Amino acid sequence: MAAVAAVMGLLVAGLAIPFAGVVGVAAKDVAKSMDNLPAELEATPLAQKTSILDGEGNLIASLYDENRVNVSLGQVSRKMIKAIVSIEDYRFYNHGALDIRGTLRALVTNQASDGVVQGGSSITQQMVKMTLLDQAGRDKQAAAAATEDTYARKVRELRYAIAFEKNYSKDWILERYLNIAYFGDGAYGIQAAARHYFGKNAKNLGIGQSAMLAGVVKNPTLYDPTNYPEKARERRDVVLDRMAQLNVISPRRAEKIKATGLRLDIHRSPNGCTQSQAPFFCDYVVNYLEQDESLGDTPAARRRLLRSGGLTIRTTIDLDHQVAADAAVADAVYPQDQAIGGLAMVEPRTGDVKALAQSRPMGGNKEAGETYLNYVVPREYGDANGFQAGSTFKVFVLASAINQGIPLSTSIPSPDSMEIPDSEFETCNGPYAGSGSWPVSNSTGSGTFDLYTGTQQSVNTFFAQLETETGMCEPLGLAEDMGIELPPSQRVPSWILGVSDSDPLTMAEAYATFAARGLHCDSRPVTAIEDANGSLLKSYPEACRQVLPGATADAVNDVLRGVMEPGGFGQNIAIDKPSAGKTGTNNGNNSVWFIGYTPQLAAAAMVAGANSSGQWITLNGQSVGGSYISSAFGSTIAGPIWGQAMAAVSPDLDYEDFNPPAGDQVAGVLASVPDVSGMTVEAATATLEAAGFVAGNGGYVSSEVEADRVAYSAPGTGTSLSSGDTVVLYQSTGSVPQDDVDEASDDSGSNGRGRGRGRG
Are strands 50-53 and 312-315 parallel, antiparallel or unpaired? Predict the structure, then answer.
């Protein structure tokens, strides 16, 4: 240290400022200055870009403050290493922190010019300067101190360089230098620079490419090849000449390369969600992780980790599903329409979010219909308030009714309109304390409905009366268990008509619970995060719990699949796999919904009216997606979005049917009477009971069926009945009198089962 200080006392000024300015600086002053500095400079981790991957490991977005990917020295071309050492510090492996020979050379040159013409800093000293500048970040004062042309800075750099040389190997220092250096045009570190300028990894850089990159380091702005290609080429040639001078390459090789252009192949590295293949899913992931307190004590710390931690974020998105969702939404609602369309896809049994799409692209150009609001996710993740979900909320009363043992065959006369006193609605704490009564009316006609037809036709007065039977407590609790939060002010009898705001992701998550036979899973956009070294930082396991008996969910599915069958509101959008669904339309037709699912995928489609000022308006009378809407309904406006997207992904889904509801567990399930002809009474009874029916004894009848076995049932095979209904069994005498045979020959409906086939 004393020897270095003595030399520095004479030489350091000549490296940074005119020699005349520091004549007389004593060696002991330098030594004292160095002794007052901290012994070491911490080599803090360098900022690296974070990668967000889809479920198959494909890159969908990058986040970074500095476009950098650290690599080991072994992952850097030997040509690149030789080029940078040749031009910056050719004796790097032969001297310590201070290159005395280089320093003397710089001093003589600077003295002759009475100014700073040549530097004498070693690679280690340069790495120190870069480290100080990197750690300064946005602190302007610290950044100025790291670059000022002063004696103090040179002393400080040298002190830290000595410590680095003492504690680390030459290879470690060179590796950090190559990773920390700025190569211009937003590229930090050799790997990012190689990818940016040449579209290849640092391992594969050639001599000409290496020489250009080595030359840029001296002045990344002046020698930026994208802005100043001629200057970059001149600087590259200087590096090639130096390599030839040092016999790293032959002069002939140098001249041959100098005769060629830079041959750039620029690869821009997108930054942020706007340029992602799935911008709003990406935005959801970022907001989701920024709220994860395990990733940092403050939102700012978590944001900094995401943008500079070099993380690998593994997500649940399926890009094929995303493409299908984007296309379906884009075809139905245009960006500049006075409407917003959205679609969310969620996988039952895992909660994995497979796709998020909306009609307004991400961006700040309002005239083009762009927005940064994410309308398809909960407010805490997207800053949008959501939309009234209409009759899609009725399923929570349906499920509660089934759970409470109310038979699906229960019939309720339902007029066009009625008024129900508030006191008839039971809450968890007694009768609802409202101001009077709830006037409710239908838009689907009147009549007498059971739980099947009342749901499939979405009859308001039917469900209002059903809610008086179930009470409000259980349905509201079930909705909450399935991911829907209602504020106290909206816990009113009319909540089942969807007066609360929601979003497609929340509703897809809720309906996925029915597809999963009562297993509710929180929406999950991320499965794992790895740190910059590839080690697991945090995993995000499935968060699931059973909130509904499987038999109850099976019954709900049985009811809702009728929506997709002939006569149902969704019959025109049904896909080639078993599916179920529910429509939703709010009062005033401001928003319409269709939520449907298969056992493997749930999706919620929504279209809401919104003018250019962001105010919600009716869809009636609007032109949306190029088509005029006279009156908007969930089945006609939102349904086709669901149908198009699900049809596109259907080939990727295995064929899987819903579990048929068990009649012995759910009252009133509609099921077909099984064929029991020819069975023993005991076997036929067991078969009927397994189907949810009660077996009755009708005695003996003439039949050619083996004696004592069942000849037929009444009602007959294939008749639709509710679980719990009685099916009478008739046993065979084993013979048929001739008169009955003649009569039976004219009975086209007997099919050998006797005259009773069509009975009932």
Answer: parallel
Burial tier of 149 (Cβ tally within 10 Å: 0-12, 13-18, 19+): exposed
- What are the pLDDT digits (tens) for 426-436? 999 999 988 79
Torsion of CA 329, 384, 397, 588, to 10 degrees: -70
Contact 523, 484 (CB under 8 A): no
Where do the structural domains in the chain lie, given as residue ranges? 2-36+70-258, 394-481, 670-758
User: What is the model's pLDDT at position 144?
Assistant: 78
3-state DSSP assignment of residue 62? strand
pLDDT tens-digit readout, 441-482: 998 889 999 999 999 999 999 999 999 999 999 999 999 999
The pLDDT assigned to 671 comes to 83
Alpha helical stretches, state H, 114-188: 123-136, 140-147, 151-167, 170-180
At 117, is the pLDDT very low, low, confident or very high (cuts 50, 70, 90)? very low
633's tokens: 């309904």
The DSSP bridge partners found for residue 501 are 388
Token readout for 697 is 């004894």
Report pTM.
0.85
CA 254 – CA 249 distance, rounded (Å): 7
Report the percent of the chain where pLDDT is more than 70.
Answer: 89
In the chain, count of helices (H) and strands (E)?
A: 25, 27
Q: Count of residues for the chain?
A: 760
CATH topology of domain 2-36+70-258: Penicillin binding protein transpeptidase fold (1.10.3810)
User: 402, 161, 364, 154: which is closest to 272 by C-alpha?
Assistant: 364
Domain 670-758 is found in CATH 3.30.10.20: yes
